[in-house]
Amino acid sequence: MTDLERRIDQGTGREPADIVLKGGRFFDLVTGEIVASDIAICDDRIVGTCEGYEGREEIDVTGRIVVPGFIDTHLHIESSLVTPHEFDRCVLPHGVTTAICDPHEIANVLGEDGIRFFLDSAERTIMDIRVQLSSCVPATHLETSGADLPVEKLLPFRHHPKVIGLAEFMNFPGVIHKDPGCMAKLEAFQGGHIDGHAPLLSGRDLNGYLSAGIRTDHECTSAEEALEKIRKGMHILIREGSVSKDLLALMPLFTERLSPFIALCTDDRNPLDIAEQGHLDHMIRTAIAHGRAPLAVYRAASISAAKAFGLHDRGLIAPGWRADLVVIDTLEDCRAEMVFSAGRRVTDALFAGRKPVEPVGLDSVRAREVKASHFAVPVTEGETPVIGVLPGKIITEHRRFRLPSKGNQTAVDLSQDIIKVAVIERHGKNGNHANGFVQGFGLKRGAIASTVGHDSHNICVVGVDEDDMAFAANRLGEIRGGFVVVEGGRVTGEIALPVAGLMSLEPFEVVRDTLHRLRQAALALGATLEEPFLQLAFLPLPVIPHLKISDRGMVDVDKFALIG
After folding, report:
1. Closest to 452 (Cα-Cα) out of 365, 521, 553, 563
2. Which of 484, 485, 489, 438 has the alpha carbon at shortest distance from 466?
3. The Amidohydrolase-related domain covers which part of the protein (predicted)?
4. Which of 34, 149, 185, 546 lies at a 20 to 30 A Cα distance from 102?
5. Alpha carbon distance 365, 271 (integer Å)
6. For 384-437, what is the HEC assignment?
């Protein structure tokens, strides 16, 4: 008997189903009703609802509600600081049965090898991990990345069964002004899915960007911005990560009318926040607590997300659909008590049966040794450019201040919360080193450093003391990448991230507990940011006070506070 014939026989009741969830109710995302019903499963498919069924295995879910598995529509697994296998084990129990990732971070370090690592991992995880091919490697010509991925290097992956399409196209100036490299990638992926990334883009420039076949955006920070993009055919991915938190600002989008055009994503979220708050389940709880209709919220978490990315086999509880199911207590609390991924009940034994994937990029930190003198900034007349950190956002401000001097060097100014920042090339290509100043970390002493530095992932270090900054930067080479906190020439906290300098080889529980200790070490230096390490990771991004595109498709270089 074929698999198809078995499904038909189990759906009609001619033979017992493989699994039956009995005594519960399911949330119908078409009508908005909560329906009392058995749910019959055959292999990886739902084969029966709205009827009574017998099963070879029967599971009592009396008093519980069953909802479709959640879909994270845009994330960088690397930002969880664990490998895809550990991400699977960390997030799937929260009900996230599909994750659409962009391996942009590891691709900027390792190129094709990084993408292969993710595709190999995706074929072995329990959760369905889908991969978007990184479109912007390198992300900018203003910084040195570890790799270059022109269209010729992406095409061999295009038809991989885990690949959906082209990942977030961040170079929107290059699209609008028809940069040849951008055009080659866009032409190659026409007819497939192309993710967008266009913060604050509007008007005719937005029209031109969308005319390239780009259909999604996760960078909206206001309902007004999102509504313009929805009117112009975009699917808006509402983001709530560990640094970028847009959920509250985009609450007005959660209506039954707009729910087919919105979805949820985390972009960048670490295991400590997942443990303390949750993942997409946290977004669902928060939206409903703010008065949003559960039907709109759960649609965004599943069926609307599936349709946006052409995953037409999931997102509803109905016969013939993929059996990605989450058994919860109530719609409001959204606490996953049981999860099914492709018909398999998620258990520790299920995770234990996965085949491991050999780690890559274990020697990716090749920075030259630095000394305290390398962080010197000569005195200049007038005001000094300073990066202004905005808590809860990855965007920063370009500020200017008169800073004190020490000898012939510009000094930090703790009274204005201004300390030093540096980016150090770590891919072993040119040894570039750039210094600047940053406001908003709150540090009163010491230094913190990281090999997670978007988007090229060079070493980024901030600090009050140049000796501590040098110690922290050099320590990263010794542990093969990660985060380091230093005070008085002594390491007070660190986490090793040897996989491309981005991910740990430890279980997510170890990473979670280590991150907690790192927070405490940063607080001991006076840090005031909720997420000092992820905020540090985004500091190397260019500072653009006004997103005004010139005729050449670039932003004037003198607008940047720091160029690594």
Report:
1. 365
2. 489
3. 65-349
4. 546
5. 23
6. EEEEEECCCCCCEEEEEECCCEECCEECCEHHHCEEEEEEECCCCCCCCEEEEE
